[in-house]
Structures are given as C-alpha cells and as structure tokens.
Amino acid sequence: MTQAPMFASDNASGVHPAIMAALADANRGHALGYGADELTARANRAFKQLFGDQAESFLVYNGTGANVIALKGLVRSFEAVFCSAESHLWVDEAGAPEQFLGAKLITLPAHNGKIRIDDMRPRLGDIGFQHRSQPRVISLAQCTERGSVYRPDELGAFCDFARAHGFYVHIDGARIHNAVAALGGDCKRLFTELGVDVVSFGGTKNGLMMGEAVVVLNPALQAQYPVIRKHGMHLASKMRFLAAQFLAYFEDDLWLHNAAQANAMAAYLAERLKAVPQARLVAPVETNMLFVELPNDWLAPLQQQAYFHVWRADSSPGRSEARLVMSFDIERAHVDAFVARMGQLAAQEQ
Questions:
Q1: Where are the domains of the chain?
Q2: Does the pLDDT of residue 3 top 80, yes or no?
Q3: Residue 131 buriedness (CB in 10 A; 0-12 / 13-18 / 19+)
Q4: Distance CA 292, CA 261 (A)
Q5: CA 63, CA 67: separation in Å to the nearest integer?
Q6: Among candidates 63, 326, 85, which has minimal Cα distance to 208?
Q7: Over 80: is that where the pLDDT of 105 sits?
Q8: CATH annotation of 17-252
Q9: Can you give the pTM of this predicted structure?
Q10: Is residue 138 a contact partner of residue 105, using CB atoms and an 8 Å limit?
Q11: In the predicted model, what is the mean pLDDT of residues 48-74?
Q12: CB of 309 within 8 A of CB of 9?
C-alpha cells in the first residue's frame, strides 16, 4: 500500500486511529446480533444528541445503501425524486436508486452543485396528472458534489417549499461532516429545526473503516425503516462493529475535528494556488474539495506527487479541470510539496 498522500478522494485515506482502536475494543467477547447490543443502543443515543430526541438512526454499510434505504421510506414506485444532474444518486450509483425504489429520478440543473427551487416549479403541474410520475421527494447533497453547501436559509426554503406541496426532503450526507464543520457544527439547527425528513449520514469519507447511517427525523416515517433496512440487505448481523466506530467518531467531536482539518487544508491549498498563475480555481472553496483548471502537461507529473482525478478533460484549450479532495489526515507539508511541484513545472516552461 502506498504511503504517499492522494488528493483523489477522501475515500483514499485510512482509518482514524481512534476508530481502529474502537473496533479492536468491540472485538472482545460475545454480543447479541442485529443491533440488539449495548454499543448499538449507545450509538442510537449519540445520534439523538446530535439531531434531537425524535431522531431514530439505522446503521448501514455504505453510502449507496444509505441513500436508497433512506429514499425507500419516502417514495412509492409511481412517484419521483428531484435531484441534481451532478448528484451521486444520478451519476454514481449505477442505477441502484431506480432499481431498488422502482421510482423515477428527475434531474435538475446544477449551479455550482446546487439545485434551485425555480427549476422544480414547472414540474408542479405533474401533481395529480395520471400520465406523469408524481413528485414526492427533494434530495439535496450537503455538501454537494462540487463541495458547495446549502446555507440554512437556502435549506429552510427547500423545506418550506416541500411542505407546501406535500413533498419530503432527503439529505445525501456522504460528506455531511464537511458541511456541518463549515456551517457551525449544529445538526439540530442545520437539519432538524428546518424540517428535513431523512438524512443519509456519512462516515467512511471522514475516518471510518465502513459505515453510514440513515437518520429519520420525521417521527411519522420511522416505523417502517427497520424492515426497509433488512429488505435492502443492510442489516448488519454484527452491528456492534458499525456502532463502535460511530461512538468513537462522536467522542470529543472527532468527526467535526476531522472534517475541519480537511476543510482547512482545502482552504490552505486554495490560498497557496494564488501564487501559481497557471492554476485557476473554477469554483469557490467552501469545504474540502477544490476544482482547479491546470495545463494538460502538468497533470501526469502532479498526479505522481499526489494522485487526483481529472474531472473534465480539455475543459479549455490545452487545459483540464482537476478535482482535488482533502482528507482528515492531509497536512500542510503535503500541500506545500504539491505546490512546490507546480513551481518546478512552471520553472521548466520558462
């Protein structure tokens, strides 16, 4: 396994030492399966502390599972989910949401990753029209696939719009930690009090080995989720190993500290890039992701320094857009080495 840092994805990072230690501690003796153990009960209480006493959490293995299970409790097969055309639901889940839900995804234009209420209004005429899938859910990525965040007033407006039309609001929170760290760290204020119904709560991209959660904030929807999780093949028999990770994750706000470090390194890299004329930021840096247009000749040498994905090849003549993702274990020295390599490439061109 390589020891070099990667900017390809926060999935490339390892497991935080505190999480690994928690897994080892959980691996002692026997415990009842399928969530009937004390660690899972404690994890559920920890989620209530984050989101409020009415919240119920359901631990699952991965992000795709969290999304489709979350949505299964909100939508019937003749209904539809609004989502961004850049969303993970639409682009990167191999059709799993539509296969598992039997429902339709309606994609909306992405404006720096975010969708707009005005782009949903033309579809309101579908409500009650027998020839159309019936809109039912608004799915918002927080943060988005572009690293942008919905501010509380923006998210509140979506929740108000949803209530006015009988819709539900789902949060795809694969990187919810980065968004919450950027917005002040209060899940009750940022989600529960605004009227969000269900949250897919990520952890794997922020130091967990595996494990996400479906957090159901709307009490009227909670009763069916235990069976939905089992039906969706995400009921872990040895649930304690998922729960133990989340307990360590929440202790002393480790999850927020990890996310804040990743966000800070993205901001630091953005600041350092100001001294590199050949590198152009494509969008503001709000969380742990940067989108940077670079000379094509620089791509391979820089990928050897810290591997990253080319997001849009040949986005302009002789240049391509790269996505650089900072993880919880990225440090200033990694960023400095990356920028220094840019300096070397720039000097070679002179």
A1: 17-252, 254-349
A2: no
A3: exposed
A4: 20
A5: 6
A6: 63
A7: yes
A8: 3.40.640.10
A9: 0.96
A10: no
A11: 97
A12: yes
Between these two residues, 349 and 72, which has the higher pLDDT value? 72
| Residue 270 token pair | 């953005």
- What per-residue confidence (pLDDT) applies to 1? 42
The pLDDT value given to residue 185: 85
Coil, helix or strand for 24?
helix
Q: Which tokens is 133 given? A: 């899938």
AA letter at 27: N
Nearest to 234 by CA among 105, 116, 61, 104: 61
Q: pLDDT for 124-149, tens place per residue? A: 999 999 999 999 999 999 999 999 99
* pLDDT given at position 349: 81
Taking a C-beta distance cutoff of 8 angstroms, is the pair 295, 315 a contact? no
Q: Directed axis angle between helix 240-250 and helix 254-273, to 10°?
A: 60
In this model, does residue 168 exceed pLDDT 90? yes
The SS3 of residue 58 is strand
Instruction: Place domain 254-349 in its CATH homologous superfamily.
Output: Aspartate Aminotransferase, domain 1 (3.90.1150.10)
pLDDT of residue 2: 52
